[in-house]
Amino acid sequence: MTLPPTMNAMILTGHGDTDKYEWHTDWPMPEAAAGEVLVRVKACGMNNTDVNTRAGWYSKAVTGATENATDETPDGNDPSWGGKPLAFPRIQGADICGKVVAVGDGVDAARIGDRIITDCWLRDPSDLTDKTKTGYVGSECDGGFAQYCALPSRNALKVTSDLSDAELATFSCSYSTAEGMLTRAKVTEADTVLVPGASGGVGGALVQLAKRRGARVIAMASEAKHNDVAKLGADRILPRAPEDLRATLGGEKITVVGDVVGGPYWPTLIDILERGGRYTCSGAIAGPMVDLDLRTFYLRDLTFTGSTVIDLEVMPNLIRYIEAGEIQPALAASFPLQELVAAQTAFIAKQHTGNIVVVP
């Protein structure tokens, strides 16, 4: 296969608002280095990491919600998920669905033609379990907001599915994040899981994956999105932020809260956890600064788990769930790659229920 010397790509030039993106039609083609594959990107999902990284929201100097991050200035020392400066220019986009078109040295040529989705986490080949030596596709290396992307072969996971490219591009980040959270919290059929923000990509994945584990699931979302959330299989759906959550829940006993929202409502979520309950978190789109009464934490024997770098078994499990039809994509909308700014604006404004993808 003859590959072109250049490609279309959306380039992030620095931290800030969406004007930091630049559209290029002549960006140099990547090459597959030793141990890598070159992927023709067919679709790429959008997630909060893309927004947060662009805005520098991960910096401790930023205290507001994700949609307001650019109103504050990151201090430059810790603007990425890993707390380190990024190299620019950068091509973002971790949730890739595509086809392997070339391989680097040491990679079996039989991989050419594989349909793949990404394991977003870049790991140290000498110790795949070392979470201190990890990177993220679209952050520490270029990602899928382009026509082509070079990835370590182990991060390009073969998938066999009748789902469309856009549908498959919804799984890598949202669903692996959700499965990682549920794994850390050790969710089983004995649990009742409360999911704030259930209309979002991760929230919707939490609903499906917790139901797959046999748990009872109570979703929280704005009432305009209840019909869409119902399709994900939640046992009950509540308003986004009931004034009296305990009364609204009635006799429900919440053993797990799976949260990517945070913000001012956070103490209410902690207060309704049963004794011995677990809170698991992988985001704070409504704001990272929260109030915690330590007495609630220790007197109620609660367990808090943060979840970022997923365990090794998460992505192979997701591939198995996808191929068996045990989970379904929640594709909200797709945009041409050159309209990424419009796509991200819609994503931030939560105009849709589920995941948004871009198509090169």
From TrEMBL:
Record Pfam families: ADH_N, ADH_zinc_N
Domain Enoyl reductase (ER) residues, every copy: 16-358
Keyword NADP part of the UniProt annotation: yes
Keyword Ligase included in the entry's annotation: no
Coiled coil spans: none
Record keywords, A-Z: NADP, Oxidoreductase
Annotated protein name in UniProt: NADPH:quinone reductase
